[in-house]
Amino acid sequence: MTNSHSDALVFFGATGDLAYKKIFPALQAMIKRGHLNVPVVGVAKAGWSLDQLKARAHDSLEKHGGVDPAAFEKLVGLLRYVDGDYQDPETFSALRKELKDAHHPAHYLAIPPVLFETVVENLAKSNSSTGARVIVEKPFGHDLASAQELNKVLLSVFDEADIFRIDHYLGKQPVNNLLAFRFANTFVEAFWNRNYIESVQITMAEDFGVQGRGAFYDQTGTIRDVMQNHLFQILSNLAMEPPAGFDSESVRDEKVKVLKSIPALEAKDVVRGQFRGYLDENGVAKDSQTETFAALKFDVNSWRWKGVPFYLRAGKCLPTTCTEIVAKFHKPPSLIPHSVLTENHLRMRISPEVTIAMGMMTLAPAAERISLQAGEMVASHSPGAEEMDAYERVLGAAMEGDRTLFAREDYVEEAWRIVGPLLTKSPPIYPYAPNTWGPSEVERVTPPGGWQDPVVRQGLSPVATQAA
Question: What is the mean pLDDT of residues 189-217?
Fold first, then answer.
């Protein structure tokens, strides 16, 4: 289809958990900004009426951000509902009737991937796919072969340009701000390369467990759940070359090049951990070998980054909840002994607050002789209510036809290629105590000078702060 705005939004799984927690709040927010003024058709098999779906939407908003009376009134005016089995062609005939004069709908599949093929085929048979877009939620398969099969299913009905693979992490403003920081500031280019950067580490820590999702998580694990999607997206933004333009394909071309430059991982490149108590979670197998923590080391063999090791670390039941990037610089060729120097660093925090900090050496106060100490200059802010939620941003972009924030077919398959060997022959798993930074074996995959553990401060960070 053309880049015209979608003239209807259909979301399958309208009575599900994702719709309740994320989609209804995003739809209300889009209406408040004037970004949604087309029919919204929910589809599910729940035996519900439209009034029941409206009540569900109201309850969702009460618990997730609050009800805006004017925006909610407009939302329920746009809302439609089709109740039926996804296997039943009559469901899709009813959907086609609800779409009425809409010729360019966006079909959002907020449903388990096992149902994608059925829904896509029935959309085609009911003539609901003509001129349409399709939006699918991660995971995009569970390995390379299943990702290729999923892409085959989607491409059998839709063109690649009309397929929008949602990784909500790409809808987060701080993740996209990495590109603004790199390409909108002249000074960054001077040092953002192998000549100055010694190593790069990315940490995504969560201080909670599987939160009742044991059955899902035990089939997934940290590498599948966040490494090959969320953290690879951050990595791509950090390591990509300047795109030829800021159109969607130029940006996505450079991101794919980053992944193509990364060799497939080997067992020696990873340490997997599992927090003590995980085996007691409902839905988790008593002999589970699923990781709840992983640390990876790899190279990005591009001209810019050749020889610079990258480290990724993610896990549950860690000491804090925070996502942070730390790039350490080479020590200077100084007359000062290296033993008293700490590497300069650039620290960029994605959440919970947004921070850019520069670590450097300065004179210690009131020192009688030249005495150095490490400190940081920090710029930080907490996200405000006016900022777009990730789902609001990605749904709006998909309906506009802007593909920049979405994973392309070749990107998805490259990501699975990189982690594939770790999935077919999983390295050993090591236990770790909750509220620690993973198993002691993680020392085997540790950046020069060690991991820099995030410290979450309460409220806004000061403009300038001394390192502890």
Answer: 95
Residues with Cβ < 8 Å from 381, sequence gap 6 or more? 353, 354, 460
DSSP one-letter code for 407? B
Q: Which residue in the list 107, 168, 230, 345 is annotated as catalytic?
A: 230
For the entire predicted model, the pTM comes to 0.90
Q: Residue 185 and residue 193: Cα distance in Å, rounded?
A: 15
Dihedral, CA of residue 226, residue 227, residue 233 and residue 238, to nearest 10: 130
Pairing mode, if any, of strands 105-109 and 8-12? parallel
Q: Which tokens belong to 326?
A: 């730390």
Mean pLDDT of the region 407-429: 95
DSSP for 7-35, please give it: SEEEEE-TTSHHIIIIIHHHHHHHHHTT-
Contact between residue 51 and residue 143 where contact means Cβ atoms under 8 Å apart: no
Q: Name the β-bridge partners of 430.
A: 273
The pLDDT-based confidence of 464 (bands split at 50, 70, 90) is: very low
CB neighbours of 298 closer than 8 A, spacing ≥ 6? Answer: 262, 263, 265, 269, 309, 310, 312, 418
What's the token pair of residue 178?
């990495």
How far from the centroid of its chain's Cα atoms is residue 335's Cα? 44
Helix 390-400 with 24-32: angle, nearest 10 deg: 70
Asked if 9 and 164 touch (Cβ cutoff 8 Å), the reply is: no
The crossing angle, in degrees rounded to 10, of helices 89-99 and 116-125 is 60
Question: Who contacts 48 (Cβ-Cβ below 8 Å, separation ≥6)?
Answer: 15, 56, 81, 83
Apex CA 164: angle with CA 87 and CA 85, to 5°?
15
Catalytic residue flag (residue 64): no
The answer to whether the beta carbons of residues 183 and 175 sit under 8 Å apart is no
**CA angle in degrees (0–180, nearest 5) for 326-328-332:** 160
pLDDT digits (tens, 9 = 90+) for 277-287: 999 999 999 99
CB 397 within 8 A of CB 405: yes
**Residue 214 — φ and ψ, nearest 5°?**
-60, -45
For the chain, the 3-state helix, strand and coil shares in percent, each to the nearest 5, are 40, 20, 40
